[in-house]
Amino acid sequence: MKKKFLLCCIIMLLGCVLMLAGFTMDSSPLYIPGILVFFVGVLLEFMLIRCPFCHRYVALYAPGKFCPHCGGELR
To answer: How distant, in Å, are the alpha carbons of 1, 46, 70, 73 from that of 55?
Structure first.
């Protein structure tokens, strides 16, 4: 699950970098794709960060190493 989380964070960070580059250079061809890349990262997070047993979304701030929904061990 850590690799999936890292992938989502990298994609969202890339989107933020593109947005900031677009805003600082006043270039809309950069910040519009940056917004799209950021939201793709958010969407991937909701699709990938799931319990392997009940397949429900596991919030990243959930305490412990167990699913708050079914009690299954998170890897």
So the answer is: 13, 11, 10, 12
> Residues 28, 9, 59, CA angle at the centre, nearest 5°?
120
Nearest CA to 40 out of 70, 13, 69 is that of 13
Averaged over successive runs of 10 residues, the pLDDT of the chain (75 residues) comes to: 84 93 82 91 89 83 73 79
Which amino acid belongs to residue 68? P
Contact 17, 50 (CB under 8 A): no
Is this model's pTM higher than 0.85 or not?
Answer: no
Q: Which residues contact 15 (CB under 8 A, 6 or more apart)?
A: 34, 35, 36, 37, 38, 39, 40, 41
